[in-house]
Write a structure and sequence with these properties.
Number of strands: 6
CATH class of the largest domain: Alpha Beta
CATH architecture of the largest domain: 3-Layer(aba) Sandwich
Strand order of the largest sheet: 2-1-3-4-5-6
Keywords: DNA-binding, Phosphoprotein, Transcription, Transcription regulation
Pfam family, one: GerE
Shape: globular
Organism: Streptomyces justiciae
Radius of gyration: 18 Å
Order of helices and strands: HEHHEHEHHEHEHEHHHHHH
CATH superfamily of the largest domain: Response regulator
Distance between the termini: 33 Å
Number of helices: 14
Number of domains: 2
Protein name: Response regulator transcription factor
């Protein structure tokens, strides 16, 4: 593990890293920008922001940053969809774009989903500004970075020989469908889900129908049992 003090000393010298912020909450982006975007002090230059999947792909393609701070839950398909569409940029041997997930969620499927999609690390939004700057530089160097509580979990998940590396049923669902699935399994009503995800009740109903169809389930009770068995609740 790299020494945070060494990384910060480097950041305040000549070294620079160009970063794009992807999060659907403007106030959060503003806060992160204020915390890490003082380039002369941190070495971090925020070159773009985006609030959904389409915006993210457009901004990332146009700016070609070294690191993208990526929220997991985004309108348009989530962080996994951004990773899928930016795969050629991640694979660029000369100037790879690397992704660091920055999310409020520490749910297993979220962490594994974005790491499987190509992200170099996953930290939660409780991280301090100093540690986030350190994590950005480490990801730029190609290191894998995780919040302490998640590191052991990720290693266990990928090292386990008892569990399949891919849940084919879960992979059929989009990121938004997984969010709706989790809330349904927790007993939320459609109106409550709509309010929490900032979508209409009709859209919630459409997502539930799609989930039931893809998982070949008949009702929300079967869906709840399915989610509970996979520890998604």
């Amino acid at each position: 593990m790299s020494d945070p003090t060494e990384a910060n000393d480097t950041a305040t010298g000549e070294r620079r890293v160009r970063v794009v912020l992807v999060d659907d909450h403007r106030m959060f982006r503003t806060g992160v920008q204020a915390e890490i975007g003082q380039t002369e002090q941190t070495g971090v230059e925020v070159v773009g922001e985006a609030a959904d999947v389409d915006q993210a792909v457009t901004v990332i393609t146009a700016t070609r940053p070294e690191v993208v701070l990526l929220d997991v839950h985004l309108p348009g398909g989530g962080g996994v969809e951004v990773l899928r569409r930016c795969a050629p940029l991640m694979a660029d041997a000369e100037q790879p774009v690397r992704f660091l997930a920055l999310s409020v969620s520490d749910a297993a499927e979220d962490v594994i989903g974005v790491i499987r999609g190509g992200a170099r690390g996953y930290v939660t939004k409780t991280i301090t500004g100093t540690d986030l700057v350190d994590s950005i530089f480490r990801v730029q160097d190609g290191d894998a970075v995780f919040s302490p509580r998640l590191a052991g979990f990720v290693l266990d998940a990928f090292a386990s020989t008892d569990a399949p590396p891919v849940d084919e049923d879960l992979d059929r669902l989009t990121q938004r469908e997984r969010e709706v699935l989790r809330l349904i399994a927790r007993g939320y009503a459609y109106k409550e889900i709509a309010k929490q995800l900032f979508i209409s009740v009709k859209t919630v109903e459409s997502h539930v129908s799609a989930v039931l169809r893809k998982l070949q389930l008949s009702n929300r009770h079967e869906l709840t049992r399915w989610a509970t068995a996979r520890r998604l609740v």
